Amino acid sequence: MKKIIKYVIIDILRNKIILAYTLFLLALSLSIFNLEDSSAKGVLSLLNIVLIIVPLVSILFAAIYVYNSAEFLELLVSQPLKRKTIWLSMFTGLSVSLVLSFFIGIGIPVLLYEFSATGITLLIAGILLTVIFVAIAMLAVVKIRDKARGIGAVILLWLYFSLLFDGLVLFILFQFADYPMEKAMVAITAFNPIDLSRIMVLLKMDVSAMMGYTGAVFKDFFGTVAGLLTSLLVLLLWIALPAWLSVRKFNRKDL
Amino acid sequence: MIIANNINKQFGKLKALDNVSVTCNKGECIGLIGPNGSGKTTFIKSVLGMVVCDNGFITFNGKNILHDWQYRANIGYMPQIGRYPDNMSIGQLINMMKDIRNEKDMQLDEDLIKQFELDKLMHKRMRTLSGGTRQKVSASLAFLFNPEVLILDEPTAGLDPVASEILKEKIIKEKAKGKLVLITSHILSELDDLVTQVIYMQDGKLIFHKKIEELKTDTGQEKLSKAIAAVMLKTK
User: Fold this and answer.
1) Taking the model in full, what pTM does it have?
2) Global ipTM
3) Residue ranges per domain, chain B?
4) So what CATH class is B2-235?
5) Is B69 within 8 Å of A75 when comparing Cβ atoms?
6) CA–CA gap between residue B6 and residue B206 (Å, rounded)
7) What is the mean pLDDT of chain B?
8) Residue A37 burial by CB count (10 A; 0-12/13-18/19+): exposed, middle or buried?
9) Residue B105: predicted pLDDT
10) Are B227 and B216 in contact (CB under 8 A)?
11) Nearest CB to A77; choose among B50, B97, B99
12) b or e along B183-221 (b: 16 or more beta carbons within 10 Å of the residue's beta carbon)?
């Protein structure tokens, strides 16, 4: 398994897109920290960018990379290797390289300028989101054979998680405005890793007051250690579930 | 050595394999013949586990291949269209394959690499290779690990006469060592001096599996190509 991961990572690191992504993140975070007068505000600006760009790049890059590695996968499958090993190596290689770019681009500036609980939470959220969206991309790729349709589906998935889901939640909130929805909201956020990460980081910033009564309920839940652990667990589940489903599907796939 | 038992495979509406049962033993050289789209490649791919059969099973040395993966160490596979990672050079590809296998006391068979003069092209990227050179790489990789079974899907398609002669000689040499060789080809005259048995497939069905002498006496023809032509006319 280690050997295949090595070859995947070497191949990805030779890719110019991953280099551009790292440099872009680095330029972005450095300029934000240098423009804002307080670095805490910088983290807030960075959060919004991390929540949009990191999932998009992770899901798109992973999907395109796996589609373009069809030949590599085909070659490996005819060798004495377990399919599970091949697929998980691909997943690990992609995750490690994207997490590495995220860490260089966002992680190092954050650690330099804002070495605090908020900063660390932002980093953890970003790393988890990267891996989650790689896992989702792998699941989409293994389900959809056609490259163009697969990439389209992956963009739609990203759109769903970053925009449509929030719209849906707002719609539900307005429809059920007469009922106490605050507790239910906590459960609903579990269905969207992006929202979950956003809330996790925002609550570390003590801006929950700006979220009204729901914010107070969120604070009650996510502010506790148990709540934090639960949300971390849910995020890990968002990695494990798509990865497991995609391995199962890949095991039966015709190449 | 390889036993396929009533395997079926359906792609959408198309029945690619329809109740195929085959037994292949050591020392045999089997020619897999049939019109385009008759299921030859699907059969080969299901032996390799690249295509998972809908039902039926395949055993390799008595072990079901479904949950086994180590058996593939004993198979050298040359695909019909060799597809390799584009931005790897020939040298990197060969080194990677060696590295992935990395068995102890592995005996490498680099005859074909030398005979095809691939060592001069080691730095060339796979994407820049011509179809024929790609075939040479596929062939070299199939023979590299000295496998007990060789599965060659249209091995000489796209090779120049010199290269295909080298490959044929290599196949005969390996056959003499008692290896099982499975070849598909449309160039029947080429198979004449190679194969000892013939499997004929049509529309996913196995029509017959015979020794070549048997086939020749049955059809009254001396040449394999004429014999197969006679069979094709009869089945139509």
Assistant:
1) 0.90
2) 0.86
3) 2-235
4) alpha beta
5) no
6) 10
7) 89
8) exposed
9) 67
10) yes
11) B50
12) bbbeebebbeebbebbbbbbebebbebbebeebbeebeb
